[in-house]
Amino acid sequence: GTVTTDMQTSIRASNMNPVSQLDWSVHISPQWVGEAIAWLTTDAARPFDGGDFSIKTDEGRRLVGLIE
Questions:
Q1: Which domain holds residue 49?
Q2: CA distances, 3 to each of 9, 26, 45 (Å)
Q3: Is the Cα dihedral 41, 46, 52, 58 positive or negative?
Q4: What angle do CA 37, 13, 25 make, to 5 degrees?
Q5: Could you tell me the pTM of the whole model?
Q6: How many domains does the chain have?
Q7: Within-domain flag for 32
Q8: Rounded mean pLDDT of the chain?
Q9: Reported confidence tier of residue 30, pLDDT bands at 50, 70, 90
């Protein structure tokens, strides 16, 4: 996924590729990324050790506590 950053603002202005066409609302907030990284250091995240984890899904967002 993509994260809401100043770089995304530049990419959007460039209109150079499919990412530049994405609606701003589809980008993940940097705060959510930070919270997910912090959560991955907890015992609750142990089942994901050595595997993949995503906050692009509602399931991943619920596990981290980003949504109910």
A1: 6-64
A2: 11, 9, 22
A3: negative
A4: 45
A5: 0.75
A6: 1
A7: yes
A8: 91
A9: very high
Task: Provide φ and ψ at 31, rounded to 5°.
Answer: -60, -45
Amino acid found at 27 = H
Question: Distance (Å, rounded) from C-alpha 15 to C-alpha 47?
Answer: 40
Higher pLDDT, 62 or 7: 62
- Whether 1 is in a domain gets the answer no
The sign of the CA dihedral 18, 19, 23, 27 is positive
Burial track 9-46 (b if 16+ CB lie within 10 A, e otherwise): eebbeeeeeeeeeeeeeebbeeebeebbeebeeeeebe
3-state secondary structure 21-52: HCCHHHCECHHHHHHHHHHCCCHHHHHHCCCC
